[in-house]
Amino acid sequence: MFIIFFIDKSLLYQSYLESAMKISYTRYYMTHQDHVWLIRKGIHKSGGVWADFGSGIGAFTLALAELIGKNGIVFSVDKDAEALKKQSVTFAKEFPGQDIRYMVSDFQKNLSFPPLDGIILANSLHFIENKELFLMQLRNYLSENGRLIIVEYNADTGNEWVPHPLSYVTFSKLSMDAGFQNAEFLEKIPSSFLKEIYSAYAVR
């Protein structure tokens, strides 16, 4: 006696897609192209004066430099001098001759800049508890129509490593309360940590 089983190929394909999605969300590592992709829509012109707050070893500093080009100036701010030293080596190799100025400092302190065309805060804002006050401080650094671009975990509940994340919905409201306008969602990307990372910007 023979029993024939008919398999619905559409169900198999759906199962494959679901498995692929699970893999992508549990095992994902960002590349330089990902960093560029996350912030590129927030940078509307080449050149200008920008700052990367909490820049670390420079993942988004490099992306920023690529997008604003050689006529731009970048202030790279981090309290970790060793991280900035590593960043400087990579930056000199990838973008020789570009104007970058390293500042060893806690980015929560009052700092001195020329009027900035933009600020990048990539995985930095989740360390700040009083975000509205801090966003007001950032707004004062920006020139008229200057842009604040954030990259953050799309969640409002954190843990010991990401103590104070904020979803896009929360950022949109907070930025308005701090005096920014025109908050806009840019991109999102899967993450093995808190599921998703998004980018957004707001205008002074």
Overall description:
The chain has 204 residues and is α/β, with parallel strands linked by helices. The protein has one domain (30-203): Rossmann fold (3-Layer(aba) Sandwich), CATH 3.40.50. 35% of the residues lie in helices and 26% in strands. The chain has six helices and seven strands. A seven-stranded mixed sheet has the order 3-2-1-4-5-7-6. Helix 4 links the parallel strand 2 (73-78) and strand 3 (99-104). Helix 2 (32-39) packs across helix 3 (59-68). The radius of gyration is 20 Å and the shape is globular.
Quick summary of this structure?
With 204 residues, the chain is an alpha/beta fold. It is built from six helices and seven strands. It has a single domain (30-203), classed as Vaccinia Virus protein VP39 (Rossmann fold, 3-Layer(aba) Sandwich), CATH 3.40.50.
Round the mean pLDDT to the nearest integer and report it.
85
Major β-sheet profile: 7 strands, mixed
Total number of strands: 7
Number of domains: 1
The H-level CATH homologous superfamily, spelled out, is: Vaccinia Virus protein VP39
Please report the distance between the alpha carbons of the first and last residues: 76 Å
Per CATH, what is the topology?
Answer: Rossmann fold
Key structural traits:
disordered N terminus; alpha/beta; 204 residues; Rossmann fold; seven-stranded mixed β-sheet; 35% helix; 26% strand; 7 strands
Question: Mind sketching the topology for me?
Answer:
Blueprint: H1 9-26, H2 32-39, E1 49-53, H3 59-68, E2 73-78, H4 81-94, E3 99-104, E4 116-122, H5 131-141, E5 142-153, H6 168-177, E6 181-190, E7 196-203
Parallel strand pairs: 1-2, 1-4, 2-3, 4-5
Antiparallel strand pairs: 5-7, 6-7
Helix pairs in contact: 2-3
